[in-house]
Specification:
Layout (H helix, E strand, L loop, with lengths): L5 E5 L5 E5 L13 E6 L2 E11 L17 H5 L1 H4 L11 H6 L3 H9 L6 E4 L6 H6 L4 E6 L2 H13 L6 E5 L2 H7 L5 E4 L16 H4 L4 H9 L4 E7 L4 H5 L11 E9 L2 E10 L6 H17 L1
Parallel strand pairs: 4-10, 5-6, 5-8, 6-7, 8-9
Antiparallel strand pairs: 1-2, 3-4, 9-11, 10-11
The structure holds S-adenosyl-L-homocysteine.
Amino acid sequence: MQDDPTIVYKARHADSVAVSLDLIPTLAAFKSSLQLVTVNSRRIFVKVVKIRLPQQTPVSTGKKPAFVPQHHWDYRYSLFTKYDNGIQMDEESWYSVTPEAIAEDIAALCGGAQTIMDGFGGVGGNVIQFARSARVIAIDIDPIKVDMLRHNARIYGVSEFVKPIVGSFFVEGPRHAPVDILFMSPPWGGLNASSAKSYDIFERIYPPITQIARTAAGISRNVILYLPGSVDPWAVLSLFEYMPDLAHKVEFRVYCMSNSIKTLAVLIGDFVHLDSLEVARALLNTTKDNDRA
Ligand code: SAH
């Protein structure tokens, strides 16, 4: 961290946050490295990993349902490679489903987990990938999406590993706790969320992210949030306020395509793997900073 001055950042629902300038102003400045930062007096190890997604080829042929935007239709195979086998998506799902390559990458990080909960399962983009190696509790408040999820899981041959539940995450989540890993892609609040220049997690996500974090902390020691790429990482780190007992380890997994950041998986808790050499280096850098102060 050489000569990064420490600055004070004011998060909306948090006290002042001392952070290294190295990580600001945009996520694009993140490096694949480990840093120790202080947020609301909590010391948090922050690891950043950048994942470059393969370029997809658009396919505009075929019978597009009238309600599907052309762009989404052209990239349907990036959402589900088995789209032609009869995948079902309602209107909202066309723009909220997690692309398969990203869902696969996230699922690969969960190897060894026996039970995974998806608190906002939708039509199954993530659930299906998790179910290839774990038992998955898939909650969604919308019964139509849960029906589609059941159907889509059958197409991918994983339905025996999925327990679909219609209901609210806040009721059904705690009822089925604990689980090894809790994954959540809450509603981002509109079509243009992932292209917004800066995305306020406290303003845009509904149900409120603070309520989601508080509930999540009672369900698992390992939490994953899937968010737009333009979130403020310091706002995300301030969520420890609501999850005080989770291990203070965070991995920002940044998904980029053609050099722009699209989305972000935030891994929080015990299962974040930290390389011991990098931990030592991060600790050493912190000491240097303290000495300078
Ligand atoms: N990851 C999913 C998409 C999730 S979109 C996929 O890849 O398919 C967010 C989902 O949250 C929507 O399906 C919406 O119906 C659901 N949702 C909204 N409020 C909820 C609540 N309180 N509890 C559970 N699900 C909720």
